[in-house]
TrEMBL record, chain A:
Classification via Pfam families: 2Fe-2S_thioredx
Obligatory cofactor(s): [2Fe-2S] cluster
Co-factor remark: Binds 1 [2Fe-2S] cluster.
NCBIfam families noted in UniProt: PRK07539.1-2 (NF005722)
Residue positions binding [2Fe-2S] cluster: C86, C91, C127, C131
Family listed: Belongs to the complex I 24 kDa subunit family.
The protein's name: NADH-quinone oxidoreductase subunit NuoE
Known EC number: 1.6.5.11
UniProtKB/TrEMBL annotation, chain B:
Domain NADH-ubiquinone oxidoreductase 51kDa subunit iron-sulphur binding: 332-377
Record's protein name: NADH-quinone oxidoreductase subunit NuoF
One GO MF term attached to the UniProt entry: FMN binding
Keywords: 4Fe-4S, Iron, Iron-sulfur, Metal-binding
Cofactor: FMN; [4Fe-4S] cluster
Gene3D superfamilies reported in the protein's UniProt record: 3.10.20.600, NADH-ubiquinone oxidoreductase 51kDa subunit, NADH-ubiquinone oxidoreductase 51kDa subunit, iron-sulphur binding domain
Matches recorded under PROSITE patterns: COMPLEX1_51K_2
């Protein structure tokens, strides 16, 4: 990783400073700051974590305790798109396991992995509150319900092509 | 039901989208804020809410007025206090708060203004789960508009009361719904629950008095203040006032959520509103109010869905969102799925929960995969007893996790025995 990639861009640093200033104590901005980094880079690398910790006046381990605790903060690189396939009870009843197996075959990855072309990361997620349209999933920020195999087959090629 | 009987959802229209400030006012919105800030003292507001018998809609069912009554009484201008909307809807099978926030975010905003006025809190936070992207956009938009029109900000309606709201988008952990873990998260720490006392009402966020109320609870406040405690209490069919968002998921004909009188019989929810089971399926059992409530079987369908009645039937009203188990889904598979969730979502703070829940999951794995033994059954029973009793773990996570297990061990005893005797899941190998 080059030096340029290890530091935070000036605009992102300013955003994090503003988040910290809006809190009674800077550490109150931990999650918002880590999410800002993730929005920019897709994940939170160790150099970036260190930079954020410095801005918030926290130790890196302290902040990493938060970064590794929350389901939606990624401490490893992910693909250009992230599929969060619900694995909670209503979706399980409505057949999420066969969908997961199908995705595994089509993408040639298991849950927790990223495709070889770096297009898609497949992750399980806890209930996403779309149980009346189970099985459900989030593709990046977009909610999909009543998911079936044809719907997945329509979706995947487009995701692979999208930047 | 007429719009007047559906005060939470009357203004929700999926076609036109959420009402803006003008449409909200036309639908009866802001009346309550005008009335409260113009004619009622904070104590009056608390009194009306207490008399309405509104109880927390997040699952625990604590009296809302009573919860507020513990907050120190200084005016907002003299002491920093927080009013927090718990919008971390992560109970599996629950999708009611998302409907309310996406459908009519201004009603939550107004509910927060009223609650904040009652406890004299100047700072409002919506603790929103990170996966609710559309709700986040709509809330931000509603807050911006309300601020522009003077419903939020300094000296609302020319009164001495100032209040503003900001949205905290979380990053996904079930335990954040526990109110003290929620506060810990907002302080930029891992979401572990805190010991009480101090209770949040006296020593909450950053040590300041804080009230945490569920979204549905807060959305009830504008109609209560506008129409009065007696009107609200009369909406319920039994002892508990108001309406409730009930729901059903699983293999029912029409999964969904409906605003119905508090105390609506479970049978009416499942058979009438959800349309009964899908063709070819029979109802085996259900979790009446989310993953952390005990199973009820078909014989309990006539229970009224209010706090006391569901408890008497051996479960909890919880979130009021039922998850239905059909006759062609393995109950042990379902319990394994639930315990996987609870094991994963344990915050790891106390040993019985951190180590006990994964142990339970492994035992269920073994039974479902056909390698379980009678000894495993005894071990499951021990866990259900030890972790299920309150007070043996730091918070209510593990007792909640044990509710479907303990009830399932009784209700599905034959299924467990068959798995062990046949060394396989009979249901999965039936085809």
């Amino acid at each position: 990783m080059s030096t340029a990639e290890e530091t935070l861009p000036a605009a992102l640093e300013a955003e994090i400073r503003a988040l910290a200033a809006a809190e009674p104590y800077p550490r109150g901005a931990s999650i918002a700051a880590l999410k800002a980094v993730q929005r920019h880079f897709g994940w939170i690398s160790t150099p970036h974590l260190r930079a954020v910790a410095e801005l918030l006046g926290m130790s890196m381990d302290d902040l990493d305790g938060i970064a590794t605790y929350f389901n939606l903060l990624f401490r490893k690189p992910v693909g250009r798109h992230v599929i969060l396939l619900c694995d909670s009870v209503s979706c399980w009843i409505m057949g999420r396991d066969p969908l997961c197996a199908h995705l595994g075959r089509v993408l040639a990855i298991r849950q927790g992995e990223t495709t070889a072309d770096n297009a898609i990361t497949l992750l399980p997620t806890v209930c996403i509150g779309h149980c009346d349209h189970a099985p459900a999933m989030l593709v990046d920020d977009t909610l999909h319900g009543d998911v079936d195999i044809p719907a997945l087959d329509r979706l995947i090629p487009g995701l692979k092509e999208q930047p | 039901m007429s719009a007047a009987q559906r005060p939470l959802t009357a203004m929700i229209d999926p076609v036109t989208g959420p009402p803006d400030c003008t449409a909200y006012e036309r639908g009866g919105g802001w009346q309550a804020t005008r009335k409260a800030l113009g004619t009622l003292s904070p104590a009056d507001v608390t009194d009306i809410v207490t008399r309405s018998k509104l109880r927390g809609r997040g699952g625990a069912g604590f009296g809302t007025g009573q919860k507020w009554s513990f907050v120190p009484k200084e005016p907002a201008s003299e002491r920093r206090k927080y009013l927090i909307a718990n919008a971390d809807e992560m109970e599996p099978g629950t999708f009611k708060d998302r409907w309310l926030m996406e459908g009519n975010p201004l009603q939550l905003v107004e509910g927060m203004i009223l609650a904040a006025y009652a406890v004299q809190a100047g700072h409002g936070i919506i603790f929103l789960r990170g996966e609710y992207h559309l709700a986040c956009q709509r809330l931000e938009h509603a807050i911006g508009q309300a601020r522009q029109l003077g419903w939020l900000g300094p000296n609302i309606l020319g009164s001495a009361f100032s209040f503003d709201i900001h949205v905290h988008s979380s990053a996904g952990r079930y335990i954040c719904g526990e109110e003290t873990a929620l506060l810990t998260t907002l302080e930029g720490r891992r979401a572990t629950p805190r010991s009480k006392p101090p209770f949040p009402q006296t020593g909450g966020l950053w040590g300041a008095p804080s009230v945490v109320n569920n979204v549905e609870t807060l959305c009830n406040l504008p109609p209560i203040i506008a129409n009065g405690a007696e009107w609200f209490a009369a909406l319920g069919l039994g002892d508990d006032g108001g309406t409730k968002i009930y729901g059903a998921s699983g293999r029912v004909a029409r999964p969904g959520a409906w605003e119905l009188p508090m105390g609506t019989p479970l049978r009416q929810i499942i058979e009438e509103h959800a349309g009964g089971m899908r063709p070819g399926y029979r109802l085996r059992a259900l979790l009446p109010g989310g993953a952390s409530t005990a199973f009820l079987d078909a014989s309990a369908l006539d229970v009224a869905m209010d706090y006391a009645s569901v408890e008497k039937a051996g479960s909890r009203l919880g979130t009021g969102m039922a998850i239905v188990l059909d006759d062609q889904t393995c109950p042990i598979g379902m319990i394994r799925n639930l315990e996987h969730f609870f094991a994963q979502e344990s915050c790891g703070w106390c040993t019985p929960c951190r180590d006990g829940l994964p142990w339970v999951e492994r035992l269920l794995d073994a039974i479902e995969e056909g390698t379980g033994t009678q000894e495993d059954m005894d071990q499951l029973g021990r866990h259900a007893r030890m972790l299920g009793a309150p007070g043996r773990t730091f918070c209510a996570h593990a007792p909640g996790a044990m509710a479907p297990l303990a009830s399932g061990l009784k209700l599905f005893a034959d299924d467990f025995a068959d798995h062990i005797a046949q060394c396989r899941c009979p249901q999965r190998h039936a085809a």
